[in-house]
Automatic annotation (TrEMBL):
Keyword annotations: Coiled coil, Cytoplasm, DNA-binding, Nucleus, Phosphoprotein, SH2 domain, Transcription, Transcription regulation
Entry GO CC: cytoplasm; nucleus
Originating species: Brachypteracias leptosomus
Protein name (record): STAT2 protein
Locations listed in the record: Cytoplasm; Nucleus
Residue ranges occupied by any Signal transducer and activator of transcription linker domain in the UniProt entry: 319-364
Amino acid sequence: LEDVQDTFDFCYKVHYLPGEDRANDPQYAQQVQALQAKLQILDRQRREVLAQMQQLLGRSETLRDFMLEELGAWQERQQRSCLGAPDDTRLRPLETWFTELGQGLFQLLKLLRALEDLRQKVTYERDPLKAETPLLERRLRELLTYLLQRAFVVEQQPSMPNAHKRPLVLRTGSKFSSRARLLVRLHDRNHHMEAKIHIDRSGPPGFRKFNILTSSSKTLLTGDSPQDGLVCDFQYLTLKEQKDSRSGKGSKGIGEGPLVVTEELHLITFTLAYAYCGLELELETSTLPFVIISNNNQLSSAWASILWINMLSSNPKDQQFFSTPPPAPWPRLAEVLSWQFQSVAERGLGRDHLLMLAEKLFGKA
């Protein structure tokens, strides 16, 4: 397209002489006709390029929707694995797909900018670049923004080092870690991306409030291993309850009674200042809800809360879940109990085991 445009532009400057009356010059008339033919070729090729980009964007949107389905399935597997299910939670395949699609979309963005440069050099009446390029760029930026926002995920849910395979239960004064990952492994090496964590950024009123004592921000430097991806890894974090908070109880909130400590649900939010190819965004993702305890005798109750919300909640970010907690059907609870035994003893519960537990809970039929 650039070659065709350069040829037209050269011929136009050499042969076309506006303002001169050369209507009776047959050679000049032929040159003008040849110029018109070259302009028609240029116009047709511009329209073909734009049509191809429209088609590629449509295919990219279809691919994005498929990848988001896969991402949703991975998030469900991760949630089940927190309860002990033997699910595969590796992110490498998703990271590869998201990165490849991101590269393709950023390449289209560069091509659109190149088309705009061509339009600045040569334009004409009813130029398709003038009308369609801004619309294509807006659509492409929206697609890239949505892809990047969804590609920022929590890879490791909050957990203490000796959690006995019980993540999402944290104790004040004890260290814990959590990690987020951007699945699109593309970033501007001249731009230092800053990652921050926030606890209960917009938490329910009346819940206890906490501060993160250790550093709540870090910069992803260009020297970090690119083969390891773009990771926001926060380790050795510590929580401390704010002095003016209510100890031991939450407020009534929207429920009918106060929530005990082990039914208060908290969230950590990661934010990341992202920049690449002129696109600057603040990306955000949140952990699953977790429980904060102050001593070990609360651990069993806290873990029961984690089991209950992850078994039954359709909204994994619902911090008010225990205002009106639903009952659990026995088949669902039995499956989760079997996962618990399998995660600790490497063997799940058989039919006889589950029948015995059911009789303990409900009595004999």
